[in-house]
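DM between two lab members

TW: hey, do you still have the Peptidase family M50 entry open?
JB: yeah, one sec
JB: this one, 259 aa:
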Amino acid sequence: MFLMFVPFKLYKELQIIGKKNLNKKLDVRKMLFNTLIISFTVLILGFAINFKYAVGYLSILIVHELGHYITAKFLKLNVTFGGFTPIGAYITHEDPKNCKENALITLGGPLLGGILGLICYIIYYITGDYTFLALSFTAITINLSNLIPVKPLDGGHIVESISPILCYIGFPFLIYLFISVNNLKSKVILLFIMAAGAYQTYNFTIKYKTDSYYKVDKHSKIIFIIIYSLLVLSLAGSAIYIYNAFDYKCIFKNISRYK
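TW: and the structure you got?
JB:
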């Protein structure tokens, strides 16, 4: 009943103050949650492997999102770093005008992440520090996995600017990974990606021919095909090289605290 007697101007001011206080509370909660995720990640990886690898792993996640962030800024979209989750990191940005812009934003992540993997390998080559070799392999495999052409993965967002057919090619890879991995957490994540991917791909296929959002000229499609193919081939080639040239299990065992 009190609000009935409050002048409208004062009522609006109270609303604004209330929203600001709510945003502050949400920001504090978000900061605490991110701090918890970072601390937990550093502690787990730091004690299981080493703290240099733990910091490097977080850097891989940040650099990947930084690639998305820079591209979104280049396209003059409002964008902020969302924070960390138990399975990675994320940014939030306003909706792009079309799938072409969305594909460009998405390409920025694995591109910059792949460059970081190369930098880590160069540091290993110069110093002989196996931690950087492990980080190089980690960066390459994370960014390569993200290029599987199934939404919500980066690859799914990229190939929607090329053809809906490519969106179905990624499912056999996900099924293979689901069968291959022994880790329960990885199986749950892959199951979630397949379920979300099936739903999003179905909707995308229906809208592809009628929705103007998906209209991309042939020249742009050819450019996306070339960039996407080169990125996948370079990361896949790098992963195969490291996997065959080094025993990655021995690498991680070498840098782990517990031999």
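TW: got it. Strands lie at 79-85, 88-93. The CA atoms of residues 9 and 31 lie 33 Å apart.
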